[in-house]
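B., you asked whether I could sanity-check this one before it goes into the benchmark set. Here's the sequence:
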Amino acid sequence: MMNQCYTTNRKREYVGFNRLWLTALALLVSVGMVLAQDMTVTGKVTDITGMGMPGVAITVQGTARGTTTDVDGGYTIAAPGNATLVFSFVGYKGEEVPVNNRSIINVTLAEDTKALEEVVVVGYGTQKRKEISGTVSSISNREFNAGVVTNPLGAIQGKVAGLTINQTGSDPNSRPTVRLRGVGSLAAGSDPLYVVDGVPGVPIQNIDPNDIETIDVLRDASSAAIYGSRASNGVIIITTKRGRGGRSTVDYNAYTGVDMVAKAPNYMNADEYRAAARQLGFTLDDRKANTNWFEEITRTAPVNSQNLAFSGGSDNFSYRASLGYLNQQGVVRKSGYERVSARINLDQTALNGKLKIATSLSAITGKRDFVNYAAFAYSITNLPTDPVYNPDGSYFERPGAFSIFNPVAELNETTNNAKTLEFLGNINMRYSITNDLVFGVNGAMKGYQQNGSYYQTRVPKAGLAGQGQAQRSFNFGPDLGPTDDKLLEFTLNYNKQFGKLNFGALGGYSYQDVTFEGFAARNNNFITDDISFDNLGAGAGLALGQRANDAVSSYRNNYKLISFFGRITAALGEKYFATINVRQDGSTKFGANNKWGLFPSASVGWTLSEEDFLQNNAIINNLKLRVNYGQTGNSEGIRPYTTLALLGPGAKYYDNGNWLPSYRPVQNPNPDLRWEVNENYGVGVDFSLWNYRLSGSVDYFVRNTRDLLFNVTAPLSIKPLFPTILGNVGSMRNSGVELSLNGLVVDKTNFKWEAVVAAATLKNEVVGLASGEFIASNQIFIGTDLGAATRGTSNVNFNVIQAGYPIGSFWGYDVARIGTEGANKGQYIIRGADGKETAEVREADRTFIGSPLPKVTASLTNNFTYGNFNLSFLLNGQFGNKIFNAERMQYDRQVGRIPDENTLRGAADSPVTSELTNAFSYFVEDGSFVRLANFRLGYNFPVKGLLSRAQVYVSGNNLFILTKFQGVDPELNTGTQNSGIYTKQQFPKSRGFQLGVNLSF
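And here's what the prediction gave me:
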């Protein structure tokens, strides 16, 4: 607005010679009047987070008088009492504030949604937002979610259309399921590729969000193809904060709070259980107790987070160092996670500005306390009429009970923890050969170590003799990161302006060497618990032969990835944009005949608003059309050596007084095994309307995955050595529409309201399950292995992979009604394949009874600013998915559990008396929900002197949820083959409240 004012003034000043002198004379008169009526105005300019903003331009409207804010955002200016001050800063919306005879005026500037000059991080470089033709979403740290955010995934939940982040329960040691544009694989990984400061494959879940500057999500294949074989499920790029030249700063961010169980399971208390036993005519072995077993193992848990950062530098050198601490105790006793993180980023410019060196070093240590999830099952199925302890102080155990142990004993008498270390060091050097040609070298070393300790005491459980069991391990377990990961990359980047054409070309080479290794040792039969896991040799189990078969385990594997990649970008006249990517990857994971894969992509963009027919349009400020196509691969989730014939240990045989191991084939060779290929194409529109008050994008995509990797029965044609083989079978399709909206609903001087919407639809379908000689079953039933969680269902399959249906669909019996008379009373009446009702449960009558995948995901973020107060909250939800409530199937019926176990409160009045356990549609429920995921209310104190920012806030997580689902919480890990099944054996969902402070010096 200030620039428009100046332009108007210039036009008027040069109308003619006479008018010029008249204007000058009028200006002199007005200046004299202003000097006679001036007053001193002071204040501070901050952003929406309360941070002082240096360099903000402030002018007295209609004059040439002006100033800029200092390093803390403070300013002083002389202005008439009836004047208007104009505040402006690049990338932020300008403000016009009447003085109204005030001597102190503080202003908060909001980010300008029309900031098309914003630089977005893409693979191996950056691009201006306006020149991007792919589908890329960017989230700055100012947009992160409020409340307890212990990992970056939680910070961006609900922020990106098409990105779903779900977590069952609130275990501080669990990881959420992350899916971008649906499930893309059967056996290979479906998680996105994470890139931290240019290093791919870095686990991001433990990075302190306070250290992150931006998160960029490459949503389509045209953007992600530069990462080739690992980008099939999208790419999430993390850029950490770095120092800047100028004044040194110190930032301190901290919060403390509590977590509590949001909702307890709806099981009977002691009086209700006694009444139910009388009602149903069962004899109850009443121990006269009144025990809430669930409360016995849960607690109100504290959480504490601290982060201290130092940054600064000069023209040629800058630094930022940070130290973070997190202590998050779980709402289940003896669960928790404690983390200490340290990071230092250094930037150096040398050789007259030609050489730029960026170095990052980080280390994260952690202590994890794990709990046995079976304790949750025991806590709600133990009888409430039983005591926790016997009169002599020992644990009460019900004699003869099957798979029902004392949950307090289970937790107290088991120690299961791990100490972890993650480290990453990388150096990125860029040398400008010419002004247009830059040579780059990127090197990194990273690794992960986890030392585990386990001990279960000699205290007996349910009449079983306790022997004491101990284990020590190093990097032993699923889903652990590589112990050693080395990366070396070379790039050559050329950028040149040719008239109206901005041309860029990138070429590169990448070499990555990754090693996984680990071991575990076990023993039992200890004479005392005092030794615990500190001396495994003290146990007698090995000498007695009780653990001889699995006393020691170890493994080591390695794979290498070699890549050549290139990219060409072109922008013509700020109207037409194009990007072409190509990458060729060679991996030792795949067969000798298919070790190399080629992954191309292309995208084009057209900014229609720059055309004559839309320029200066009163409504449309920006309108860009994008079209993209690309191929990416999937090598994640596949172990090394899967294409080779392998031998492994078989049964032991007795020879000359000794038991000796035998060896047998454990894997067939497959020299033709190749990459899964994700083929993605789509079209999108970016727009800004009504003077940038409303901005957003709409995208339609189709994601086809072919050559799916899956274990199938080995065909006889290959002369198999083992019954199964990993092969390329079938294809899958995901499609949907994604919507992102950012609206400045209210834009007043002292009050602003910004709303952000992210929504997406998704349709998933397994297209086929055969490819050449590798043919999977027409129906692949997925075992649940629910075991003790839902007794009686160990051999029941709920989910299926079948062509024509979504992956993991529920496949079972369509229950027409519950029988009300005769022999069928209380039984499931099935609607058969012939349309007729029957009480028989026949395999031929199984059919599709629902999909666990949501059809729509949506979120709404609201940000309010009023004076020095700011309020934000996030509503998110998913719609159209189904949940199989296995808990209700077992514990919401009249028989089968009473009087041996506790049951849900509705069991006594349930019409169901059948003891069958199977995939009945009667227990398939609507999993849709809307959740108030988090909120934050903050106040920015006016500061001066050393302080440049001082904010206090209160925040919360999981405030309430709206749902028809009858279980505790409908948010389950979805997007996996075996998903959408709700059981009683899962960590409780917590609700948390925090009090925090942010200070800057």
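One thing to flag: Residues 17-37 form the longest helix (21 residues). Otherwise nothing jumped out at me.
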